[in-house]
Amino acid sequence: MDNLRLYFSTYNVGTSTPDQDLRELLSISDKKNENRPDLFVLGFQEVKAQPQNMLLDTLFDDPWTYTCKELLQCDYIKLKSLRLQGLLLVVFSLKKHLLNIREIDSEYTRTGLAGMWGNKGAVSIRLGIYGCSICFVNAHLSAHDDHLKDRVEDYNSIIQDQEFHVAETSKIFYHDYVFWMGDLNFRLLEEYDKNPEEIERQIVKKDIKSLFEYDQLRAVMKKGEAFSELTEQDPDFPPTFKFSVGTPCYDHKRRPAWCDRILYRVNSNNYENVTLKVDQLSYKSHPNYVLSDHKPVTAEFIIKVPQPVLKLRMHSLAVDQVFSDYSESVIEFDKINSWDEEGENKAYYRRTKEIRESAEDWIGLFKENFAGLDEYVTYEYVSKCATPTDESSGSSKKPEDSKKYEVVFPDLPNRCRGNYCLLYFSQTEDKVTSVLGISNLFPIMKNESD
What we know:
Layout: E1 3-12, E2 39-45, H1 51-59, H2 63-72, E3 76-84, E4 87-94, E5 101-112, E6 117-129, E7 132-140, H3 148-161, E8 177-183, H4 196-204, H5 208-212, H6 216-223, E9 260-266, E10 278-285, E11 297-304, H7 309-313, E12 331-333, E13 339-340, E14 345-351, E15 362-367, E16 376-381, H8 382-385, E17 386-392, H9 399-402, E18 403-409, E19 418-427, E20 433-438, E21 442-445
Parallel strand pairs: 1-2, 7-8, 13-21
Antiparallel strand pairs: 1-11, 2-4, 3-4, 5-6, 6-7, 8-9, 10-11, 12-14, 14-18, 15-16, 15-19, 17-18, 19-20, 19-21
Protein name: Inositol polyphosphate-related phosphatase domain-containing protein
InterPro entries: Endo/exonu/phosph_ase_sf, IP5, IPPc, SKICH
GO molecular function: phosphatidylinositol-4,5-bisphosphate 5-phosphatase activity
């Protein structure tokens, strides 16, 4: 494929719950849309973070993730969510891309109280898709007009501190594509001496462009102090902070400002014979949401990804000059007819490519229409449940690649009936995760002969 469509949303929810319909936030309509995003990347700040909420969120999705997943679950899989107190980042993918996604990893940085507290900071998720590497960052930086220096320090602490466990892309800006969003809390420059009422009158006149000239974020980008590695389309929407909760009206306790932002970076020439590119399709706020003193901001992008290896070979390019081709499952399961809910159950798989196995590799049992990679019913580590069989595939592949493995699940949870499938997860000691194979759907039922 040539293009991927990515949809981003950032929203400081002010400890509120999702009591408004989130369809507009996700640009979901009842009309059939052939241009659905391939990935949804959703960032939230100030998600309710009392101890009891944090405990529940370790067991279940928080209300914001749950609500978004309910709206997307027919077509999308939740790849990963990451929470740091009130900071939350969630990535969804169209189901059809699941076996083309590799090395999902995450990082976080606390910047509150000199790095001791996670009320401010950043959470990040990185992944590879069709061979391209992408990093998503959701940040909540220091607040208040006069704390510009602290915001700059927060940014630089995040880019220095975060280190992923994928060697080629261990730092945020080593990735092919970087998208950075959040409540970055940049205000209007202090030298702009107008009060909130005067600024609102300027907004009413739709004099957005001249007001944006005093934006703190754009000022530090020009000076090279922070965010200068990134690009941002000029917002043509009014400042997204500060509003009276429950209303579309500005709260004059603070000067209006563009706190909520989405920026990006593309390393266009990371590879020979391939030019990476970002096209931004939209950048807008959503004033109908009144759950907090911020308005959410969304953006949609198309990113270029290389053509599959087979097409590029027609142009006589060396394989090492192009991206990996993940169009086939690395793990192929034999067809499973059915399992017994009360007995020992087996499955068989082959590797289609040589892979580096880890003691952390595992196979999970998932219900039909599962909506997240964390929704396994039960699992077994490959090192404990899989053994080579004597059967050979009879193919021309290397013998090591064509071995068949037997998988044994000794018992299943109670009342495990319905349609299920198996997913093979490659996982490193550092919890970098890839899905390498998916079985067919098969029924689990009670053996009537028992």
